[in-house]
Amino acid sequence: MSKASSINLFSIRTPQMRAFHLTWMAFFVSFFAWFACAPLMPVIKGEFNLTPGQIANINIAAVAVTILVRLIIGPMCDRFGPRKAYTGLLLVGAIPVIGVAFSQSYESFLFFRLLIGAVGASFVITQYHTSVMFAPNVVGTANAATAGWGNAGGGVAQGLMPLLLAALLMMGVSHSMGWRIALLVPGLLMIVMAGLYWRYTQDCPQGNYADLRAAGIPIESGKKGGWASFRAAAANYRVWMLFVTYGACFGVEIFIHNIAAIYYVDHFGLSLESAGIAAASFGLLALFARALGGFISDKVALRGGLNRRATLLFVMMLGEGLGLLWFAHAGSVTLAVIAMLCFGLFTHMACGATYALVPFIDRKALGGVAGIIGAGGNVGAVLAGFLMKGLGNTQATLSMLGVLVTISALCAVAVRFSSSDPADDAVLAQALADKAAA
């Protein structure tokens, strides 16, 4: 069985479509768990009497460890396969997600929030799994759709967690106990998702990596397993250009998830519920915007090759930077929400366009490529966190980020391809032949 040349959304009959749906579901649950704390921070702030500096440390901790885990998890996919990697990450990640509900001090909360960041590495596995399952003509759309729908978990968390807390308060539960009970939900969901992923997915169209290696069957994306994959990816300049662009789009996305709710409360005086809904609108753009970025990238590549994908990314990064500047200087909550939706649209589309390029950088070191570029997103988020801590003002931080994102768009232009890879053309031809035969 070869890579799929089409996406049949309402089918789970093939291993490609089972992987498609279960990857975005697993990523959705992971992203929900990763950012479940953020919309409850106004309550948690009062619980532990947190200072602005401590809140900044918590936001940095939430994304810092993800950098390391994303670098590791990519080569692990090459070595062990995405099925084992995802199942293991979900089970291990559920421990600190549940543990944060039992924290009794700022220090213990910070510790668990740091460990929860490992869950963010789920993105790399999601992109890896769809990359090995789908042919070049649709892989950009597949990557962007699964990542986008998974990213929506962050938006759902922004809107749902305050409502869940409000429901618990109406039942007579105290504020102190309510946020703790609410945070148990995403941890339990991760355990359930781990079981489903193990049961219903396989590593690639031909089967699981362990079985294929035992049978002596070569694995296209797993030839350079472990650190060989990482070294090969690190030697490619295009990986580092996309590392920067992903830091400027996904890094900003994570930063906004962490500060949006509390920004609307502190800057515009909104209630916790209203701020949660406003912040959720940014995350929910991922339901379609990231997929749209990948879809457009696939279409322009059919007409003008891989370099058109890079040019499209440049345009989207410019839109993000300018929109972010607008958001930073919005004078009313209405204008702020409109500006956030506009720059958010470009941000999500830029994320999709970035990973539409990933499968074509180095097919033999896919795990390393996906891991390094994915880590770039978290490096961007961490740097944004340190920038806010240094400036001490959220609005000034947003303005500076707008300028930096606009400049970073130049890295997209630097990503050049001399021609298409004959191996990619062969994969596409075989997938189309299989489709015609079916």
TrEMBL record:
SUPFAM superfamilies: MFS general substrate transporter. It holds the Pfam family MFS_1. PROSITE patterns: MFS. It is found in: Membrane. Residues 19-420 form the Major facilitator superfamily (MFS) profile domain. It is a multi-pass membrane protein. It comes from the Bacteria. The chain crosses the membrane at residues 21-43, 55-73, 85-103, 109-128, 149-171, 177-198, 239-265, 277-298, 310-329, 335-358, 365-388, 394-415. Keywords: Membrane, Nitrate assimilation, Transmembrane, Transmembrane helix. Belongs to the major facilitator superfamily. Nitrate/nitrite porter (TC 2.A.1.8) family. This is MFS transporter. It comes from Herbaspirillum lusitanum.
